[in-house]
Design goal:
25% helix, Jelly Rolls, four-stranded antiparallel β-sheet, 6 helices, alpha+beta, 16 strands, ten-stranded mixed β-sheet, globular, metal ion binding
Length: 338
């Protein structure tokens, strides 16, 4: 059925955390040329989805499907490179480059006690930092690394990230309106957005292994926009503790709320636990894009959003400090050794 721009495959969502399906939200109403009526419907759809499950499939998102497919192909090609060529791209201090299998462990997970590393390898790409930029050399402000033998990876990643950044900005406008704020309220906090594109490869796992491609966790940023291949393996946990499959749907991205947006919204939007376990007997590839605020952005709950008697659930925090604390704990290469 279709209701306020939200389509459900089977059952209807009701209250926060109680869901059996992830809704499909039509984003065409957020386009510049959309009518006010269509825009209001899209905003209402986002609001309902993110207040209930914190997840949504996004259709009519505006990112060219041929570019999405090229990015998938480049992801597969990157991980098919010889090990020595991938190793030459070893992740640098700016969190850009290749991360081998089993080198990230989500110890900051608030969902489960995670002690075993994720069964995945990835190439991490972040926002470009122009040479001579005032903030060059600061934490997370440095050069990307791409395979020299596959120049198409760099070209495609830059084009893909440009389109995804535009999509992230449109979504941020819709989220501001969903919270009763001016459409451009988030814009100053994203003047120099912190962007991540992670090209992930999950090998086949055996049923009996007590391991995860990605252990149960919540994301710690603003929003995640995921393109997964046709293998499946992503699951989302509802209030009852059930793990709900989030299979791929052609022509859509999976969007989810991160912890910082949940805090920014004073708990109105929910950051929902999710995990990946690849039991398909095939390799799985995905390309999550993380749209996050500037490292220098001060994140605090807007007073004009609070209702009478309501107080902020979070203390103001600089996004860069918040982010670095989590990266330093979760990635082997950033952990200090004696």
């Amino acid at each position: 059925m279709l209701h306020f721009g939200i389509q459900y495959a089977n059952k209807r969502c009701s209250v926060k955390g109680e869901f059996d399906n992830i809704p499909i939200v039509d984003l065409s109403g957020l386009a510049n040329e959309a009518s006010e009526q269509d825009r209001a419907a899209a905003v209402a759809a986002l609001k309902a989805a993110l207040e209930t499950s914190g997840f949504a499939y996004l259709s009519n998102h505006g990112v060219p499907e041929d570019l999405v497919e090229r990015m998938r192909q480049m992801n597969v090609a990157t991980h098919a490179l010889p090990e020595e060529e991938k190793a030459a791209l070893k992740i640098n201090e700016f969190h850009r480059g290749y991360m081998p299998m089993s080198t990230s462990t989500i110890v900051t997970s608030s969902v489960a006690k995670v002690t075993k590393p994720n069964q995945s390898e990835s190439l991490m790409v972040m926002h470009e930092v122009p040479e001579g930029a005032p903030h060059a050399g600061e934490p997370l402000q440095g050069p990307n690394q791409f395979p020299e033998s596959l120049p198409e990876v760099e070209q495609t990643a830059k084009a893909y990230m440009a389109e995804m950044t535009k999509l992230g900005a449109r979504i941020a406008e819709g989220l501001a309106e969903a919270l009763g704020l001016p459409r451009d309220w988030f814009a100053p906090h994203f003047q120099d957005p912190t962007l991540f594109l992670r090209l992930l490869h999950y090998p086949e796992q055996k049923d009996e292994e007590e391991l995860f491609g990605s252990a149960p966790h919540t994301d710690y940023g603003f929003v995640t926009l995921l393109k997964q291949d046709n293998v499946g393996g992503l699951e989302v946990r509802n209030k009852r503790g059930d793990w709900i499959p989030a299979p791929p749907i052609e022509g859509t991205f999976v969007m989810n709320v991160g912890d910082i947006l949940a805090k920014w919204s004073n708990g109105r939007f929910v950051s929902t636990p999710h995990r990946v376990k690849n039991l398909s007997r095939r390799d799985r590839y995905s390309q999550p894009f993380f749209y996050d605020p500037s490292m220098r952005a001060l994140v605090e709950c807007p007073a004009q959003m609070l209702e009478a008697g309501e107080t902020p659930q979070m203390q103001p925090v600089l996004y860069g400090e918040y982010l670095l604390e989590r990266l330093n704990k979760n990635y082997d290469y950033r952990k200090k050794t004696s």
